[in-house]
Amino acid sequence: MIALRVAALLIAVCAAATSPARAQDATTLKKEMVGQWELSTTERSKTCVVTLKGDAAGHGFKLELEPACKTALPFTKDIVAWSVRGLDIVRLQDARGEAVIDFTEVEAGLFEGLRQGEGVYILQDLAAARSMAKSMDEMIGDWSMVRGNGQPVCGLTLTNTEAGPDNFQVFLKPKCDGAIAQFNPTQWRLERGQIILMSKSGETWQFEADDNAQWRRVPDTADPLIMLRQ
């Protein structure tokens, strides 16, 4: 009985000690969310700009949706305000304060939310989203793979044709080196600063930009494989 009381006391003390910090986390999140955000499908084929404001509005805070939102993402017609629920849930809500969609942060400035029957949606800082879109556009086109000595070993084309969530089609040109032809990537994506090539079997190769404006396969080797924009 004494042990139980001690345990209960420890839990209460811990809760009291952590509550202010957690409350501060929620308060900080509210401040950080004020600004412009991009709401989109995972592959960004449909996008919508949302401006979150700090002014109170009914059950939450004011927001503005650009006019094109209702066409691009029909569920947004029900969104009239936003709020932070619990410690880390960003809610886009209807007039009653009910969730139209809830988002949780998966990395700094990037949130994911699920709508049953529709799929996953992304909420991210607008400037970061546009920077990523620009980076993606710069990747599309013809590339050459070369060895560290500059010897060409394959040509490939990165496209913006969708091939699944967040992935796009890639095509190898004829007469590729045997190892690359065997890998035979069919999809690609840009993820956290890396070009990811993927084969039908699920194998992946990662390439990172270096100081010479070229992309090297990682981890690096004595005989590196490099992608060069054509």
Helices, strands, pairings?
Elements: H1 2-33, E1 35-41, E2 47-57, E3 60-65, H2 69-72, E4 81-85, E5 89-93, E6 99-107, E7 110-115, E8 119-125, H3 126-139, E9 141-147, E10 152-162, E11 168-172, H4 178-183, E12 185-191, E13 194-199, E14 204-209, E15 215-218, E16 225-229
Antiparallel strand pairs: 1-2, 1-8, 2-3, 4-5, 5-6, 6-7, 7-8, 9-10, 9-16, 10-11, 11-12, 12-13, 13-14, 14-15, 15-16
Q: Care to describe what's here?
A:
This protein is α+β, with helices and mostly antiparallel strands and 230 residues long. It folds into two domains: 29-132, Lipocalin (Beta Barrel); 140-229, Lipocalin (Beta Barrel). It has helices spanning 2-33, 69-72, 126-139, 178-183; strands at 35-41, 47-57, 60-65, 81-85, 89-93, 99-107, 110-115, 119-125, 141-147, 152-162, 168-172, 185-191, 194-199, 204-209, 215-218, 225-229. The longest helix has 32 residues, at 2-33. 19% of the residues are buried. Residues 1-24 have low confidence and may be disordered.
